[in-house]
Amino acid sequence: MNPGTLILAQEVIVPSEFGRMLVNGLSLGAIYAVLALGFVIIFKSTQVLNFAHGALAAIGAFLIAYFATVVNIPGRWIEGSPELLQWLLSVSAALILAALIGLVLERVFLRPMVGEALFAVAIVTLGIDVVLRNVTNDFIGLTPRPMGDPFGLNTAGFNCESATWIGTADLLEPCAVRIPHTTIFQLVVTVVLVIAVSLFFRSRTGVAMRATAWDQEAARAQGISVGRIFGSSWAIGAVMAAIGGLFISMFPRRPSGVDQFTAFFAFRAFPAIILGGLDSVVGAIVGGFAIGFAESAASSYLTFDWLGNGFGGVVPYLVMLIILLIRPYGIFGTEEIRRV
Amino acid sequence: MRGRPHLYTTYESDQAILNTTTKKVAATIALALMVAAPFAVVPGMMFLAESDWLRILSTIAIFVIGGLGLNILLGLAGQVSLGHAFFMAVGAYTAAILGATPGGLHLGLGLPIWIWLPAAGVAAAAIGVAFGPAAVRVRGLYLAFVTLGLVFVGDYVFRNWVSATGGAEVGRTFPPLEFRIWKEAEPLVDFTSDGSWFGVELLAEAKTWYLLLALALVFMLLAKNLQRTRAGRALQSIRDRDIAAEIMGVNEFAYKLRAFGISSFYAGVAGALLASFVGSVIPARWDLFLSVQFIAIVLIGGAGTVSGVVLGAIFVTALPRLVQDLTLWMQDIVTSGEGVLAGLFDIFVATNSTDFGLINTLPGTGPGLSVFQLNQVIYGLLIIGFLIFEPLGLYGIWLRIRNYWKGWPFTY
């Protein structure tokens, strides 16, 4: 028996391990939640199961890395501005380009498939994934590219006994938890995105999107430009994927940066999507954080020899398989009603 | 009925595998060409007798078997499975455990091929059927995710089960293609060394090719028969509209389960043959890309048809070699630096680490796709292109050509 689990049960928590698990879980959860959110937006309005989401994440992360570190756009024209502002501007520029990529993909590859069987469209996105992933990997090259984020390895300390923030000097105290600035950034961005998306689905365009998902012809008859809805949902989805790719490349991995495995890490968001149900925004968030915590808990505590290497990495898929056995439509997904 | 090739007077002749004279002639010629391939007697096909092309032919045969398996699931029953690579791996490792020489680095019982080859299929089928109820419960789109998860879980298991798979870096060796009655030292027939059969001198590759050709033909016949009988029609009705199928009395659950089992059996056999043919394989070989390759085979060839799968397998397997040859040829011209073509091809190939080009034969040294990456990109583009423009695949293109000439000079 691993001592870690026993101690956890007696609530004599090893501060570093438990704290690390918690912070990792939050960080991974933010990644998966944002990726799932983008996926759900695309699925909700276009009924397309987007296998290319991982590739979009990688391409978005690469664009951010390229703009922020290699060409320094638009920072090179704004002299003397703070580092954080410059970086955020680079990210915005990259996200705009990612949105354009989403638009183009939809217009070129997905528009001709409107009305085809859903599985055929899903396989088209699988083809897009293969193409994008290879081209992106070639651009990225063999070594990880740094994201140029101003947070770096900075951490904040948090004391779990007194529930107060502490300085770096007190990090050796028994109940201190180390929280990287990137994790705080990720969580803030995730919360903002979630609120934005929930508000968006209540806005005029958002309602039009939901209407399109429900019935494309009826939505058209109501004067909704279905094509424009498709385009905009792909653009938003691609932006979300890019943010997810940025998150993947920032904290939990060493060495951090976008590399050829970014797309594969993004694949692990699929279990989160399944867990929440394909068409539920709440489900994407809950599923994302649930999978994130499951993975980080498994990496921290399930370290038996017989489990071998990298068990944490398959936990998301195992959770997905089990969930689908119990509830085939995910926890928050709409149950498919079969009509004759 | 002479002169009236499309008038069938019996149900048997209508349902026959080769129901027209053209098909009979074409099939006979194709078979004769395939048998003659190692002898370099047919003009224009001499190159097939080279041992590397014979190896490509053998790979095609293996991919035909695997592709037929996925075709039963994807083409006939309409279920999207990304887990084909996983079932192939199950077959391969079953074969390895049963067939490899005992006392080696990894697990092995040293049993003969007539045990390990069918057992590979059966083991994969058993896992497929065990997994089936879960797969049938999740409908349509979710199934793709479940099978995707299977690939990743399988990858983890295979990487960590070192005694059976050799671990992530090293991999393991697989039993060779040799026929023994039992565990005797000298194989009765071996397909892996040069020698003479019935007084004809054959290369090792030619022997392997004949074995795999025969196996592929058997599996093609089985698939064709499945397709044109009650079970095949039941599966196709499920694919086209599952509720209507159930109302007509097709037991959806039972048939989907059978489709899973049969598809996994094919995959298992193909996996065992592939591993045995290649000789030594690392667990990363059975990754998502292998599954995508099989989806490409089925979709490029033509979903739901046996001949389509064969076309798709030929296309997908021969493509890397053709791309490689083309790249080398263009590179030669560019390096020689003469003529108009050199300037034109310079855009496509990178000749050194600083030169820009679409294809780079020195991977990792500069911009440009490696030949392997380029192949993946081409597969992806072909999958997209065929789904958008010709969902019936190469088979659909052939149908159109045929129908055009059938009515010629009229349009219909």
Structural features:
heterodimer; A: 340 residues; mainly alpha; three-stranded antiparallel sheet; 3 strands; globular; B: 412 residues; 17 helices
Task: Describe the fold and architecture.
The complex is a heterodimer of chains A (340) and B (412). Chain A is mostly helical and 340 residues long. Chain A is globular. In chain A, a hairpin with a 4-residue loop joins strand 1 and strand 2. In chain A, helix 3 packs parallel to helix 5. Chain A has 13 helices and three strands; from the N terminus they run H-H-H-H-H-E-E-E-H-H-H-H-H-H-H-H. In chain A, strands 2-1-3 form a three-stranded antiparallel beta sheet. Chain B is mainly alpha-helical. Chain B contains 17 helices and eight strands. In chain B, the strands form four sheets. Chain B has a two-stranded antiparallel ribbon with strand order 1-6. Chain B starts with 10 loop residues before the first helix and ends in a 5-residue tail after the last helix. At the A-B interface, helix 5, helix 11 and helix 13 of A face helix 6, helix 13 and helix 16 of B.
Radius of gyration of chain B: 23 Å
Please give the count of helices of chain A. 13
Biggest sheet, spatial arrangement of strands of chain A: 2-1-3
The largest pleated sheet of chain A is described as: 3 strands, antiparallel
Count of individual helical segments of chain B: 17
Biggest interface and residues each? A-B, 50 and 46 residues
State the low-pLDDT regions of chain B, or none: none
Low-confidence stretches of chain A: 1-14
What is the averaged pLDDT score of chain B?
87
Order of helices and strands of chain B: HHHHHHHHEEEEEHHHHEHHHEEHH
Give average pLDDT of chain A, whole number: 82
From the N-terminal CA to the C-terminal CA of chain B, the straight-line distance is: 23 Å
Q: Gyration radius of chain A, to the nearest Å?
A: 21 Å
> Tell me, what's the shape of chain B?
globular
